[in-house]
Design goal:
alpha/beta; single chain; 48% helix; 13 helices; two-stranded antiparallel ribbon
Length: 353
């Protein structure tokens, strides 16, 4: 029960512990097991039955459990292999350095192979070791609010099903080819992981209007973002990194590219079935993260939030005393880092004598 002075009383509910994601992870809006008439699997009873299996796994999953392993069919593995092969040939000339580094790690670690679909549990363990992110199975599309809330806890809701075999190079919905090839290598990068989490934290308790803006921001960065590296334009957005045709198109002169501008991004229309009208390019993830933090400060909430990695929970800060206590904790960490820096500087000076 909230009292009259509780600043959360009039705010939309949001999870404050990682286990509370169990309350929203099954609120699938579309494409769980029900397909539109234009979905490639609409008339395929066998495919629909397969999707019900994946949906049941996601619906029954609870935080802390091991993600069940899937025995993929020959057709599913062939579809994965087709997508994997086509994209792998494009990555060296189109993907950003951070993506290439982690994609290589996943391949050399025998997690990613052309003839075997990665198991979510293996990928999740890899992410935990690299950036603190983890995967959680999901049956289909979540609402932007529920999906972004997961990012606040460094949890990525990930599908396990594979697109229909009749359309290996296109899917009207996110499938494991999109999630594993597009998202995972970037989520393994610490800077990008922080960037993604900042968007999630900004969404907690935000109004529907603000959620819409944050979802658009997510779309044109995490899904379709570009960046500059060594004077060349490279891709870090998962929607591009998992789409053979649009990955090629985004780096051509035909594509319209604008600088990273929060106000302009939020006015842009998100296109699902066609290429984007415009792509946005960042100079660095650090700068983009800084811009998001500045924007988060403009969201009208009578509180602020911070993530506690030790308890995997959200601290809701509602007054100056709580903020001051948090700053004191940061000062302790900063003091320890400064002592370490001085020690290394002194060692370096001695080595140069």
């Amino acid at each position: 029960m909230f009292n009259n002075d509780d600043p959360l009383k009039n705010a939309p509910w949001f999870p404050q512990t990682i286990a509370e994601l169990d309350n929203t992870a099954n609120m699938v809006l579309m494409y769980g097991t029900d397909f539109d008439g234009d979905h490639p699997g609409f008339k395929d009873n066998e495919y629909q039955e397969r999707r019900r299996l994946f949906a049941d796994i996601a619906y029954n999953y609870r935080h802390g459990q091991t993600i069940p392993r899937i025995e993929y069919t020959k057709e599913e593995i062939e579809t994965w292999g087709r997508v994997f092969s086509e994209l792998e040939s494009l990555y060296p000339t189109h993907a950003c350095q951070e993506f290439l580094h982690n994609f290589k790690e996943l391949c050399e670690g025998d997690i990613y192979k052309i003839d075997s679909i990665p198991q979510l549990e293996d990928v999740s363990q890899f992410l935990k070791e690299q950036s603190g992110f983890q995967l959680r199975p999901v049956a289909g599309y979540l609402s932007p609010r529920n999906f972004l809330a997961g990012l606040a806890f460094r949890v990525f809701h990930c599908t396990q099903y594979v697109r229909h075999r009749s359309s290996p190079l296109y899917t009207p919905e996110p499938d494991c080819c999109h999630e594993l090839l597009g998202h995972v290598p970037m989520l393994a990068n610490k800077s990008f992981a922080s960037f993604s989490q900042e968007i999630g934290l900004a969404s907690l308790g935000a109004s529907e209007a603000e959620i819409k803006k944050l979802a658009t921001l997510y779309f044109f960065t995490v899904e379709f973002g570009l960046c500059k590296q060594n004077g060349k334009t490279r891709v870090y957005g998962a929607g591009l990194l998992s789409s053979i045709g649009e990955l090629k198109y985004a780096l051509t002169r035909e594509a319209e590219v604008s600088g990273f501008d929060m106000a302009l991004i939020m006015k842009q229309e998100c296109r699902i079935t066609t290429y984007q009208d415009c792509y946005f390019i960042s100079q660095s993830f650090q700068q983009a993260t800084s811009d998001i933090r500045k924007y988060a400060c403009t969201i009208q909430r009578p509180f602020t939030v911070r993530y506690d990695p030790y308890t995997q929970s959200i601290d809701v800060l509602t007054n100056a005393l709580q903020v001051a206590s948090f700053i004191d904790d940061l000062k302790d960490d900063l003091h320890a880092l400064c002592k370490s820096l001085k020690k290394f500087e002194k060692r370096s000076q001695c080595e140069n004598i």
